[in-house]
C-alpha cells in the first residue's frame, strides 16, 4: 500500500479517535499525553494487524509529534485549559479540545464541537465553538445572576432551550437566589421556560424564586412561566413564583405558573409555592391526546386558579393549601383525581367546581367527569362573598349552542368546613346551565350517578342553605334536573351543625337510591316530593326533626318523627303528638307519600285508652280527632310508599 494512502487512512483514524474522546463529556480531565498514548496504542494495534512496519514507524512518529504539539498548546500535561469565568474563556484563542470554567455555580467542562446547535455553547475569540458537556445544568452557566436586580430572562430562556436540545436534563438552581425576569414587559402570551418533548428531567429550585416585577394592572397581558408540552417523567422540586408588583386575584391577566398541555405524563411537582397569578398548576388540552399521571403538593397565595384541569389531566393526585384564591380547584371533563384542598377563598364564585362541559362535537367519553375523590377543608372565606357562589358545585353546563348530554359519576366528597357567619353561600350546590350562562330547564339526557358526601360542617349562625341539591332557587343553584337521570346519592358519616342552616334536596329529581347512613343534620331538612321506594335510611340518622327509629330520644317534641324502611320497600313514619281536647289536631308528615298511607293512632291517659281517631288523611298528613274533654298524647304511625 502506498505510504501516502496509509498516512491518509491513519489521519482519518486519528480524527475518529479525537471525536470519540470529545464524546467523553463528563470524564475527569486527564493529561494530553495520556489521551494521545491511548491513541498510539490503538493505532499500533491496527498497524500490526496490517503487517506494515514502515507505516507503523511513520505514523508513530507523526502521533508523537501531534502529542507534543497539543501538550504545548494546552499547557504542560493539562487535558483542559482552566478559566475563572466564561468571559475569560470567550476572550481566549486556543485550539484545545476541552476547556473548563471554574466560576462558582457555573463550573463546567466544554468540548470542542464546531457543528453544534446547542444553546449551551460558547464561541471563543478565534471562532472555535465549545459545547457544555455537563449533565447537570445551572442558570449561572447561561449568565443568570440571581440577585433580584439583574434581568435573568435571557439566561432562563437559554437554559430552557438547552434542556429542549438535550431532550431532558438535570437542573439545579442556585441556593436561595432570586431570578428577576421580564424587566422589560414582553408581548402578550410570552413564555419563559417552555419545555417540550423532553424526558427524564429533574429540576430543583433549591429555595430560589422566579420574580416577575410587571404591574399587570396597567399591562393587561397573560404570560407563561413554565409551559410543559408532551413531556414525560419530569420532576420539579420547590418551584417558587412571585408577582412582585401585582397581587390582585385576577383570572384575566398575570402569570400562568406550570402549564401542562396535551399528552404529557409522569409529572411530579413537590412543594410548589406561588404568590399572585392567574393559575398555579394548569392542565389543558389542545389536541386529542390526554395528559395523565400528575402529582403536585403546594401552597398558593392570591392565585386565582391554584389548580385547574380543562378537559385534560387524568390520574391526578394534588394536595395543597390555597389562600385568597378565586377558585381553589376546578376540574372539568377529567377522570381519576384525588385532591386534598385546604382553602380560604377570596372570590365571588364557587371555590371548587366539578363540572362537565357538554360538547356536541365530542364523544360521551369526553363529556364525562368521573372518579373524583375530593377532601375539602375550609375554615372560612377570606372576605364577604356573593352568596350565589357555593363552596363546592357539581354542574352540568353546555359548552356548545347545540346541547349534548353529560355524565358525572363516582364522586366522593369529604368535608371539614366551618362557614360561621350569616349570609354565607351553600356548602354544596348543583347547577345546570346553557352555554350562554342561563338556567337550563330542559331534559338533556344527563346522567349523575353515585355521589357520596361525608364529613363535618359547622354552619354556625349561617342562615342560608348548607345543601342545595337539584333545586332551582335562582341563586346558589340553577337548572331543572327532572327528566335527566340522577341516582345513587348517599350521605354517609356526615354531621352538619347549625340550627338556622337548612338542608335542601329536590328529591323529585332523583330516580333511585337516596341514602342516609350515620347522618346528623341540626337544621331544617327539605326533601320535596319523594318518588316511590327512594329513601333509604340506616340507624343513627337525624335530619332536623326527622330521625331513624334508634334515634327516638324523648317523644312529644313538636314536629318530631322517626322513620324506618319496611321489608316491602315502603316507609313507616312514627311520631308523638299532643291532641287538644274536643277538636281535631293537624299532623304533617315529614315526607310526602305517593298515595294516602295507612294510619293508626292510639293514646293511653291515666292507664285508660283514649278514643282518638285519624281523620282527613292525605299524602301530606292527617288530623287526630280527640272527642275527650282533656288533651292527650297520641302515638301515631303512617305506612306507605314515598
Q: Overview of this structure, please?
A:
A hairpin with a 2-residue loop joins strand 39 (598-605) and strand 40 (608-610). This protein has 642 residues and is mostly beta strands. The model is unreliable at 1-7, 21-78 and 554-558 (pLDDT under 50). Helix content is 12%, strand content 43%. It has a 35-stranded mixed beta sheet that branches. A five-stranded mixed beta sheet has the order 1-2-3-5-4. It is built from five helices and 43 strands. Helix 1 (3-22) packs across helix 3 (53-74). Among the domains are: 1-79; 571-640, Immunoglobulin-like (Sandwich), CATH 2.60.40.
Briefly say what this structure is.
The protein has 642 residues and is mainly beta.
Keywords:
642 residues; mainly beta; 35-stranded mixed sheet; five-stranded mixed sheet; 43 strands; disordered N terminus
Q: Globular, elongated, flat, extended or rod-shaped: what is the shape?
A: elongated
Please identify the structural class as seen in this structure: mainly beta
The N- and C-terminal alpha carbons lie at a distance of 105 Å
Low-confidence stretches: 1-7, 21-78, 554-558
Helical proportion, percent range: 10-25%
Strand content: 35-45%
What is the number of beta strands? 43
What value does the average pLDDT take?
A: 84
For the largest beta-sheet, the strand count, sense and barrel status come to: 35 strands, mixed
DSSP helix count? 5
Rg from Cα: 37 Å
Tell me the layout of helices and strands.
Layout: H1 3-22, H2 32-50, H3 53-74, E1 81-83, H4 86-90, E2 98-101, E3 108-112, E4 121-123, E5 129-132, E6 136-137, E7 147-151, H5 153-166, E8 170-172, E9 178-180, E10 195-196, E11 199-204, E12 209-212, E13 222-229, E14 232-237, E15 240-243, E16 254-261, E17 265-284, E18 292-310, E19 314-323, E20 329-332, E21 335-344, E22 352-358, E23 368-378, E24 392-398, E25 407-418, E26 428-433, E27 447-458, E28 467-469, E29 485-497, E30 503-505, E31 512-521, E32 525-526, E33 535-537, E34 541-543, E35 546-548, E36 561-565, E37 571-579, E38 583-588, E39 598-605, E40 608-610, E41 613-615, E42 621-626, E43 632-640
Parallel strand pairs: 1-2, 6-8, 7-9, 8-11, 9-12, 10-13, 11-14, 12-15, 13-16, 14-17, 15-17, 16-17, 17-18, 18-19, 18-20, 19-21, 20-22, 21-23, 22-24, 23-25, 24-26, 25-27, 26-28, 27-29, 28-30, 29-31, 30-32, 31-33, 31-34, 35-36
Antiparallel strand pairs: 2-3, 3-5, 4-5, 34-35, 36-37, 37-43, 38-42, 39-40, 39-43, 41-42
Helix pairs in contact: 1-3, 2-3
Amino acid at each position: 500500500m502506498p505510504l501516502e494512502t496509509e498516512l491518509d487512512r491513519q489521519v482519518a483514524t486519528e480524527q475518529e479517535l479525537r471525536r470519540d474522546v470529545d464524546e467523553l463529556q463528563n470524564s475527569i480531565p486527564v493529561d494530553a499525553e495520556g489521551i494521545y498514548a491511548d491513541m498510539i496504542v490503538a493505532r499500533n494495534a491496527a498497524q500490526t494487524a496490517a503487517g506494515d512496519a514502515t507505516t507503523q514507524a511513520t505514523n508513530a512518529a507523526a502521533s508523537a509529534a501531534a502529542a507534543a504539539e497539543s501538550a504545548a498548546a494546552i499547557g504542560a500535561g493539562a487535558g483542559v485549559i482552566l478559566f475563572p469565568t466564561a468571559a475569560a474563556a470567550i476572550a481566549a484563542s486556543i485550539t484545545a479540545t476541552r476547556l473548563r470554567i471554574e466560576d462558582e455555580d457555573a463550573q463546567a467542562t466544554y468540548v470542542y464541537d464546531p457543528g453544534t446547535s446547542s444553546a449551551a455553547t460558547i464561541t471563543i475569540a478565534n471562532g472555535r465553538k465549545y459545547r457544555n458537556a455537563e449533565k447537570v445544568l445551572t442558570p449561572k452557566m447561561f449568565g443568570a445572576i440571581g440577585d433580584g436586580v439583574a434581568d435573568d430572562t435571557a439566561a432562563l430562556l437559554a437554559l430552557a432551550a438547552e434542556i429542549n436540545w438535550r431532550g431532558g436534563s438535570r437542573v439545579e438552581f442556585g441556593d436561595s437566589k432570586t431570578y428577576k425576569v421580564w424587566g422589560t414587559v414582553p408581548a402578550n402570551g410570552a413564555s419563559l421556560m417552555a419545555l417540550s418533548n423532553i424526558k427524564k428531567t429533574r429540576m430543583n429550585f433549591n429555595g430560589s424564586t422566579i420574580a416577575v416585577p410587571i404591574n399587570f394592572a396597567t399591562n393587561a397581558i397573560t404570560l407563561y412561566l413554565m409551559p410543559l408540552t408532551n413531556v414525560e417523567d419530569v420532576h420539579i422540586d420547590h418551584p417558587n413564583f412571585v408577582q412582585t408588583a401585582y397581587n390582585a386575584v385576577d383570572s384575566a391577566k398575570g402569570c400562568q405558573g406550570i402549564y401542562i398541555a396535551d399528552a404529557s405524563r409522569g409529572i411530579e411537582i413537590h412543594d410548589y409555592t406561588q404568590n399572585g397569578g392567574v393559575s398555579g398548576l394548569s392542565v389543558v388540552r389542545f389536541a386529542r391526546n390526554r395528559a395523565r399521571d400528575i402529582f403536585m403538593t403546594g401552597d398558593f397565595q392570591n392565585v386565582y386558579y391554584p389548580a385547574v384541569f380543562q378537559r385534560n389531566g387524568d390520574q391526578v393526585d394534588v394536595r395543597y393549601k390555597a389562600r385568597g384564591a378565586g377558585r381553589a380547584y376546578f376540574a372539568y371533563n377529567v377522570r381519576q383525581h384525588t385532591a386534598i384542598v385546604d382553602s380560604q377563598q377570596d372570590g365571588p364564585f364557587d371555590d371548587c367546581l366539578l363540572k362537565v362541559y357538554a360538547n356536541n362535537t365530542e364523544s360521551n367519553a369526553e363529556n364525562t367527569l368521573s372518579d373524583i375523590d375530593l377532601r375539602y377543608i375550609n375554615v372560612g372565606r377570606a372576605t364577604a362573598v356573593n352568596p350565589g357562589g357555593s363552596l363546592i358545585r357539581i354542574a352540568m353546563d353546555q359548552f356548545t349552542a347545540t346541547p349534548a348530554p353529560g355524565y358525572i359519576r363516582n364522586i366522593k366528597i369529604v368535608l371539614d368546613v366551618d362557614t360561621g357567619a350569616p349570609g354565607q353561600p351553600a356548602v354544596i350546590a348543583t347547577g345546570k346551565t346553557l352555554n350562554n350562562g342561563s338556567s337550563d330547564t330542559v331534559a338533556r339526557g344527563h346522567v349523575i350517578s353515585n355521589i357520596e358526601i361525608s364529613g363535618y360542617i359547622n354552619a354556625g349562625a349561617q342562615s342560608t342553605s348548607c345543601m342545595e341539591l337539584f333545586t332551582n332557587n335562582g341563586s346558589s343553584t340553577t337548572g331543572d334536573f327532572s327528566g335527566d337521570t340522577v341516582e345513587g346519592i348517599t350521605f354517609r358519616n356526615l354531621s352538619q351543625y347549625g340550627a338556622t342552616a337548612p338542608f335542601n334536596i329536590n328529591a323529585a329529581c332523583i330516580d333511585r337510591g337516596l341514602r342516609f347512613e350515620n347522618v346528623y343534620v341540626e337544621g331544617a331538612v327539605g326533601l320535596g316530593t319523594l318518588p316511590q321506594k327512594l329513601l333509604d335510611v340506616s340507624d343513627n340518622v337525624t335530619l332536623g326533626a326527622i330521625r331513624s327509629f334508634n334515634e327516638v330520644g324523648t317523644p312529644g317534641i313538636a314536629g318530631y318523627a322517626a322513620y324506618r324502611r319496611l321489608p316491602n320497600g315502603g316507609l313507616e313514619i312514627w311520631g308523638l303528638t299532643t291532641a287538644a281536647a274536643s277538636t281535631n289536631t293537624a299532623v304533617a308528615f315529614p315526607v310526602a307519600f305517593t298515595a294516602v298511607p295507612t294510619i293508626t293512632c292510639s293514646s293511653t291517659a291515666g292507664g285508660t285508652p283514649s278514643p282518638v281517631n285519624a281523620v282527613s288523611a292525605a299524602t301530606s298528613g292527617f288530623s287526630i280527632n280527640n272527642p275527650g274533654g282533656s288533651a292527650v298524647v297520641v302515638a301515631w304511625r303512617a305506612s306507605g310508599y314515598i
